[in-house]
Structures are given as C-alpha cells and as structure tokens.
Amino acid sequence: MRHRFHLAFPVADLQTTRRFYVELLGCRTGRESDLWIDFDFFDHQITAHLTTSAAESSVASPVDGDQVPVRHFGVILEWNTWQALAERLQRQQIDFVIPPHIRFKGEVGEQATMFIKDPSGNALEFKSFKDMSRVFSR
Questions:
Q1: Average pLDDT for 100-116
Q2: Which domains can be identified in the chain, with CATH numbers?
Q3: pTM value?
C-alpha cells in the first residue's frame, strides 16, 4: 500500500481556490463545506480552509541560485507529466515565482523545478527527477 499525505492550508476565497486547483492544475474535488474543500492533488489529499489570516510568507531561502519560498508544498511528478504541466502553465501565462528550469545540473540531485502561487499566496513547487531513484540521494 502506498501512503498518501494530507495537508491543510489557508485560503482567502473558496471559489477562486476551486478554479485554480480544478481548472488550472486539474485536481478533482472531494468532500467540502462552506468553510473548506478537499482536493485530489496528484493522488494526495489537500484541504483548503477559508480563513481571514494571510497565507503569504515573504521568507525565502537561496537554493542553487533561486530564492525559494520557505513555506511551500508540492509534488514530485514523473518527468513527462512535469513537462506537460510546465507547458500548460506557460501557455496559460502563469506568473511563476520561479520559472520551470533544471536545478543542480550534472549533480546527483539534478531535478526539474518550478514554483507558482495560488490565489491566496500559498507557494507550490512542482519537481521531477529523470531518475526517480535519486529523490533522496545525497
């Protein structure tokens, strides 16, 4: 059995959040109420909770020349799936926090990565490894 993660995160508006995760990222919805929505985020459960507090954080950390938002979540996709998502987001003219590119070129941890923000300012990272056995390589 494969374990799935669950993540709850704050959002300012449920309808714009629904459009972003369903229409842009292709997530399906699960259970929901007037205060939250479950999404199938690449076979993991994430729950958007309506809140009045700000979600955005300006703290960033340098990683291989990029200023990576410290507070973020995401998913590691198969290479072709990552490429297709990057192309779809670029066609939609999404404002990238960090545009699609290869990080740690030629190193053990070489990976494709990109960062975007949802409508509430939550940072999301999508990454991929050509060799998935290297996800935890040192």
A1: 94
A2: 6-50 (3.30.720.120), 60-134 (3.10.180.10)
A3: 0.89
